[in-house]
Amino acid sequence: MDDYGLADDVLDDRYHDTATITEHADHIEKLLVRFFASLEGEEAYHGLQARSFVACISRAVEEIVRDQHWAGRGFFATVDHPDLGRQFIYPGAYAIFSETPWAISRRAPKLGEHNTEILDGLRTTTVAS
User: Fold this and answer.
1) Fewer beta carbons under 10 A from the terminal one: N or C of the chain?
2) C-beta of residue 8 within 8 angstroms of C-beta of residue 38
3) How does pLDDT run across 101-127, given as a tens digit for each residue?
4) Is 47 exposed, middle or buried (0-12, 13-18, 19+ CB in 10 A)?
């Protein structure tokens, strides 16, 4: 905040005392709101992380798909939808496993696509019982 000229009085030694922080919580909150409102989301997010704060950012889907972290780990997969004549980007594995790699093998089934196969299997099981 000091680097941006927005620290106001929070650098005073009196703020080393927990009771003073508690007493002036509303003032500190207003300063923080003003400070973070002056930053772009990415700047705030990376600045907090660089200072060892646990931080995240809410992103729109378009921003997530373009995120260099996700791209670098190969998170997204392009999946063919031949019946639509196009491809879609799907989220990939939630974790990377070296011993048991995971990958999307095909598009998600359409509504009712496997009904006959499933129902025939149920009939066979019921008849055999």
Assistant:
1) C
2) no
3) 888 878 888 899 999 989 988 877 666
4) middle
The residue ranges of DSSP E strands in the chain, in sequence order, are 76-81, 86-91
Instruction: Please report the sign of the dihedral spanned by the C-alpha atoms of residue 7, residue 12, residue 14, residue 16.
Output: positive
Query: For residue range 89-100, what is the model confidence (pLDDT) as tens digits?
Result: 988 888 888 898
Count of all residues that appear for the chain in the document: 129
How far apart CA 106 and CA 83 sit, in angstroms, is: 13
Q: Which residues pair with 78 in a beta bridge?
A: 89
Distance CA 40, CA 63 (A): 14
